[in-house]
Amino acid sequence: MFNVTPEKERALVERMARLGVRESDLEERFIRGAGPGGQKVNKTSAVVCLRHVPTGIEVRCGAERSQALNRFLARRRLCERLEARAEGAKSAAQQAREKIRRQKRRRSRRQKARMLDEKRAHAAKKRDRAPPDWRGE
Question: Which CATH architecture has domain 6-89?
């Protein structure tokens, strides 16, 4: 059905059953892909848009050139989203995104000044530990 190994397909079906997702609850659309891959990608409708009607969650998958494989991956991604929603806790992917956002966030002037002062103090401490000939004396 999805052009994957029978074990993977069985695992997906079991996972969907455990989450209460039925094929009749899913709306599936196919759209043309874009980006690298040349004529094949631009001419065929390999990207899968999958919508779970009861929850309104929509997933889009165009990772592979094969429509069948994208259908499988979209269902798997939908299950991940439903599990994350059921847990209530933040998923690992969401935590990673927030961590990157925090790292990229710009520091306030006061924070930056404090950090630079600490760096200068640390450099002075290290300079004082060095032998006299290294200090330029």
Answer: 2-Layer Sandwich (3.30)
